[in-house]
Amino acid sequence: MAENDNIFLKITRGEIPADIVYQDERCIAFRDINPQAPVHILVIPREALESLNDASQSDEGLLGHLLRVVSKVANKVGIAEKGYRVVINTGQDGGQTVSHLHLHLLGGRDMTWPPG
Ligand code: 5GP
Fold it and tell me: What's the CATH class of domain 7-107?
């Protein structure tokens, strides 16, 4: 799939709609279309980055920013105090289905361990 066909890149460009809860110059956070918890939000970089495997040293600042945004969004939607889970599915065995780096923010219920 060409990078500009990536569904998440289309969301960052406003070409397909999403329920956006936060955005800044480097990333965007929106509700997952198929939520696995009462709160299920995806935080993604605006730049094209296929997965965690493709992050380089120059992306360290971006990765830190994405994690800080996750906690900011958790606060904003009211799940920070009770707790939440952050997941980065990576590659085939990791269950990644969209080839654009994304952090899942899951909350609003008890999480079980180990994950499936
Ligand atoms: P992955 O399985 O790659 O870790 O997660 C991809 C996530 O993107 C899934 O949870 C899926 O429900 C979500 N998703 C896929 N397409 C769309 C879409 O068009 N809009 C939104 N909001 N979420 C999507």
Answer: alpha beta
